[in-house]
Amino acid sequence: MTDAPLSAVEKPRNQWWDVWAQFRTHKGAVAGLCFLIFITLFVTVGPILWDVDPGKLNIRNKNVRPIYMGLFGSDVKVAWANPMGTDNLGRDIMANIMAGGRVSLAVGWTAMILAVFLGTLIGVFAGYFKRLDGLLMRFTDLVLALPLLPLLLVMMLLFRDPLRATFGPENGIFILIVTGIGITSWMQTARIVRGDVMALKEREFVLAARSIGTPARRMITRHLLPNVMSPIMVSATLGLATAIITESALSFLGLGFPSDFPTWGKILFDSVDRMTAFPERVIWPGLAISLTVLAVNYIGDGLRDALDPRIRGQ
Amino acid sequence: MLIYTIRRLLISIPTLLFIAFVIFMLLELAPGDPMAQMPLTIPPEVKEKMRLALGLGEPWWVRFPLWLKQFFVVEPQYWIDNAFGTNFADGAQRIISFQSRSPVFEIIAERMPQTLWVVGMSYVVGVLIALPIGIISAYRQYSVFDQAGTFVSMIGFSVPPFFSGVLLIVIFSVQLKWLPSIYDTTHVVSDWDSFVFQLRQMVMPVMVLALQTTAQVSRYMRASMLDNLTQDYVRTARAKGMTESVVVLKHVLRNSMIPVVTVIALGIPAIFGGAIITEQIFKVNGLGQLLIIALQGNDIPMVMTITFLLAVLIVMMNLIADVLYGILDPRIRYD
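Above: the input entities. Below: the structure tokens describing the complete assembly.
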């Protein structure tokens, strides 16, 4: 920004406009953002438009195939009332994908926010306070050495029943999964934030702020946090992608939400037994998971470029 | 370097003890009762005796050191006895599975070959695919090949194994009927036909796991090659009139491999974790499946031992990666 031509006096722009301008040049990231918005609308606004109860059984109308299958043979059972078909109990698959997506995305976002919050907290404390550094980083290394997937499975199994008794079947499992994913995936963020905070601490503006007597609390919130925002945002996108995959993996292993409560991983898991006869039931939720994660990964890629001032503006 | 290695080994002992303690206490909190599967007609006093027989009567500060002793002393003794025909163990109590009442390590030894075969093979295949992709992507940066490689690795990062595995089964087993969908571990390779069968049943699980490895390793390989291709020594090598293949494959590749080797070592524990899911899809009766069965049956000694073995693997691979880095790169000095 210092080497900008002085003659061209523009209106002062917020740096986030520059970030957005750079982000828009990354085609994959824009496509990813569009898809993420689409899938979010699909699972939030979709159920309002497509007013079918995902849990409603209709045995007479079971095993309806998706509409496009009607093109290949006239003897295939299709119905306009169920564009994606119905499952073996006659539940509408499209309504289930919407309901499941809402849970999967909610789990992903909440777990990611928890993980990023924990990671930032530990990273800032370790980077800013020298006394805490050794202790906190030793702890981070210890957690990194834990076999996380097996431990997550153990946690699911152990705390499922008590939490279900306290918070009800759905909320209990939701809290359990979000907490489980959150406390097992903050370590990368913590390491990155710590490194950046340590580097920032040596800069002149921090020295200046300290010399006028800024207390540590305001030092962190006013001077350090805004400057480590970009690595936090990038690791947040990665965290969202992993959280969605982990939740689906838990559901797929049969240790996630209860069976009448759809999530994308759960629908996939329930359909695997019948995938020889009805492959489309596996494909829909699988595609939803994969495309969402792909979109989020591309957004992360674009954000990384857009937030890097060395690349921005070239 | 040797001192560093020894120091790291010594540090890893408290780390592993702490991890064992965390896993043990987590399982200790388990509300699940290993006696829950028993018939309700068993009188309570008999049930209490059965609990005592499982070793559940003692408090945790007795059982945790006992488990440590069994894991670190008794089991190696049995292992040495088996190998050399000695009698160190002298009939000491081994770690016994609640479910099958047989020693945990015997079951693990039965399951190990299947997992190692599938996981190890997929890791080798994944790395072998990833290295050339990374090299060519970096050498022809922003070419069509590079873009395609980036896209494929993005897919590898994004498509979870439980979907890619199921998708492969739908395409190759259900639609095309080329490959079997279930991995038959009882199959013995004795002649050419059975070898072909073994190959065919290994293709899908290996490919599913290899996709993840390839995605990761090829990215690192590309980044590392790009870092090195712009270095001064590359220009010097070209200026000396060396052929392009010597410059790239001898000078640049060898220097770029240094960080990649450590990434490969660090990835080994992660792929064992991924094998839990892949084994579930292809019905491989390996360690991952054993863990899931043990979890569902409240088989605490089994879960504890497998999880701890994975932790040992992670800690050891971290150590190996760091030591390798120091050996391969003379600029790194740990002392």
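Note for the figure: Chain A has 13 helices and no strands.
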